[in-house]
Amino acid sequence: MDGKTDLMEKPAVAVRSRRQKPSADAVAAEQSLYASRVKVYPKAVTGAYRRAKTAVLVFCLSLYYLVPWIRWDRGPGAPDQAVLIDLSAGRAYFLWIEIWPQEVYYITGLLVLGAFGLFLVTALYGRIWCGYTCPQTVWTDLFMWVERVIEGDRGARMRLDQSPMSLKKAGLKTATHTAWLLISLATGGAWVLYFNDAPTFIVDFFTGAATVNQYFFVGLFTATTYLLAGWAREQVCTYMCPWPRFQAAMLDRDSMVVTYEKWRGEPRGGSKAGLAPEGLGDCIDCGQCIAACPTGIDIRDGLQLECIGCGLCIDACNDIMTKVGRPLNLVTFDTENNQEARSKGLPTKLRPVRPRTLIYAGLLLLVSAIMVAALATRTTMEVNVLRDRAPLFVTLSDGDIRNGYTLKILNKQRADVDYELSVVGIDGARLVVQDVGESDRGGPVVLRAQPDTVVPFRVFVTAPRGALTSDSTSIQFILRNPVDGTGDRYDAVFVGPRPAALH
Fold this sequence. Notes:
This protein is an alpha+beta fold. It has helices at about 1-20, 25-30, 50-65, 105-125, 130, 135-150, 155-160, 165-195, 200-205, 210-230, 235-240, 245-250, 260-265, 290, 310-325, 335-345, 355-375; strands at about 85, 90-95, 95-100, 255-260, 330-335, 380-385, 395, 400-410, 415-425, 430-435, 435-440, 445-450, 455-465, 470-480, 485-495. Strand 1 (about 85) and strand 2 (about 90-95) form a beta hairpin. The termini are far apart. Mean pLDDT is about 85; it is low at about 1-20. Keywords: 4Fe-4S, Electron transport, Iron, Iron-sulfur, Membrane, Metal-binding, Transmembrane, Transmembrane helix, Transport. This is Cytochrome c oxidase accessory protein CcoG. It comes from Rhodocista pekingensis.
């Protein structure tokens, strides 16, 4: 019995142990859906891709900071800033092009062009936009350069962060963040310059004469630049930006992307300079490609959404391959099809022209052509007519029928223009413009439109009762500039009594 009792008690003990309440740490480890950020310490590298990245960075930053200072003569009374979005006046100026609020579709066209251009570039070269010209990447690269100059390269920064607080550490961190804030302030201020006259705003900003809104937006853009480029960094590319999730739909096996030549590099192992490792690949597993990556990934694991296509891992790897006497470009820009061909010793080729790229290029050209045609055929004036809803019509004492309209003339020229307004569609119809005058039957009325503004007029159209054959008659308002012959037409409706009541 004792033996049987022991055998029966052991399972009971085991069951009780399995039913014990798990510890708080175990529950947290099991249920946690959040991974703490592992700070990335990219190392400085030299090479072709680093030089290209630096050149693009200098170009983009120069363009951003200098464009608001470029002047463009538009004549008297017009702003002379080459690129300006004047919200108070409702205008956007791009060199010789002036966009009115009614022409916001041009902005839409630019956004569509940007989208198709990004699709095409991604299909050809992967995330090269992200690696070289994305504002987040450009400013992050600048911030990391400042950090490297002040605190040192990768190893020095890691040791500094792991060391206890001291006067030296506090001084270095203060210098770094002060430089970041100054760059962020210049960034926020430069962005506001695109919405205000640059010289005037700079004087107002430093003399305290700027508006509360201007100070607010400078502060807002300063804070976002400091936060995104100084603190968030690769987190923006990995978690906040939607483009990595879209890029897979744009890529195919002929897209040029950053690639690890696994067929050549594996199996990994150590190597001495000048000696070819027996039974091992060219990769010596030094980890320098990881150390150089701004997002901290291992490109040897294949293409990942965190990869921004900057190519700095290529420079880092080539430096090591040179030192160990192995062929360069173990990590390289290449296509998936070419990698497969190289692994089999077959010839390679690039296929930039393929259905995907042809579609994107075709859409890009189509939208560009539409935009150019719209700009080439745009007029210097527009007319809009709104018919009165109450009353629908008025019967005059002589039996004629009158309709009222509100006519608005948009004069885009910078001088007064006298337009001739006439109406067609009803025989014998005459115009009366409130506070302006009356036309003879079928004749025009002269309307003066002030420069660079929308001018409203109250217009009355009177038609002989006998000229109406329906309760609704289509008419056209014709506005013409007699000097240059330009003009515009607007279709409208003249409403009268029902046909049975006309006779």
